[in-house]
Amino acid sequence: MTATLKAEEQNQLQLVEREEMDDEDDLFEAIDKLINQGINAGDVKKLQDAGIYTCNGLMMFTKKNLTGIKGLSEAKVDKICEAAEKIVNYGYITGSDALLKRKSVIHITTGSQALDELLGGGVETSAITEAFGEFRSGKTQLAHTLCVSTQLPINMHGGNGKVAYIDTEGTFRPDRIVPIAERFGMDPGAVLDNIIYARAYTYEHQYNLLLGLAAKMSEEPFKILIVDSVIALFRVDFTGRGELAERQMLSRMIKIAEEFNVAVFMTNQVIADPGGGVFISDPKKPAGGHVLAHAATIRLMFRKGKGEQRVCKVFDAPNLPEAEAIFQITAGGIADAKD
């Protein structure tokens, strides 16, 4: 009986390819639709070369940005924007419509019921979730668990989608995915095939990888982008604060989250906070300053507990109370803590 159930679940998982895309079609309009509005196919190709694959994504760029694309004059950009406005409504909508739009948001399980409850159901799509904490506080372990749980069917609290993983510190371990997949009753080979992975070495490389994602996400049903860790390369490549490059990177991630209704999960390091004061026993704050603070929708602070136990605290979120949850790192990934 169990074997039959597992087989059915795996069959359900394989449907991830195109079936779910029918529901997703309403979420974004392909950039090709501009051709039907009288835009030259060559100009559409120029937009695609610049990493713009949907009309929704196009509306997230200023006209100044678009005229920076080689071969697009101000007159052409005006015409393109006019055509896109006919396809996508980017004006006011009612609160009821906004609520309806929120219903397309999916909550992806973390593997721990306590942590899911803390997050209002799991890691949500169309938002940026940042997990910061010291070394070995469970951030990368959660990233690996999400690589698997995102591929679970919706009725099993998954995202029924593929995973994009950008690794800036060389911490991704494909062999770690195998026991996590087995815990969820999934085929490790199929799970690994549904993860696209890239190792980024410079902030420019990281940004280019993000630009290249638009093409993949417009064609395949991705449900999460994991960046582990988000600020590491800025701290290496910039002696100053590198705020402009940081803003561009985070702006791109916000656009990806909202344009394709994917969850963006990023890990972050902590730095000593000299202004923490004498009353705080261990004054630490997340790297990235106010730029990163404003970009992240949900900020989670991770810290070590007893043994393999870890504590997650909601540091900042628009719709979650400031509370804590205890979870555990196991061979099968993140799970509920045992008493």
TrEMBL record:
Cellular location(s): Nucleus
Major site of localization recorded for this protein: nucleus
Family indicated by similarity: Belongs to the RecA family. DMC1 subfamily.
Lineage: superkingdom: Eukaryota
Species of origin: Salix viminalis
Swiss-Prot/TrEMBL GO biological process terms: DNA recombinase assembly; DNA strand invasion; homologous chromosome pairing at meiosis; mitotic recombination; reciprocal meiotic recombination
Protein name: Meiotic recombination protein DMC1 homolog
Domain RecA family profile: 104-270, 276-339
Keywords: ATP-binding, Cell cycle, DNA-binding, Meiosis, Nucleotide-binding, Nucleus
An example Gene Ontology CC term for this record: condensed nuclear chromosome
Cited SUPFAM superfamilies: P-loop containing nucleoside triphosphate hydrolases, Rad51 N-terminal domain-like
Entries under SMART domains matching the protein: AAA
Record-level Gene Ontology MF annotations: ATP binding; ATP-dependent DNA damage sensor activity; DNA strand exchange activity; double-stranded DNA binding; single-stranded DNA binding
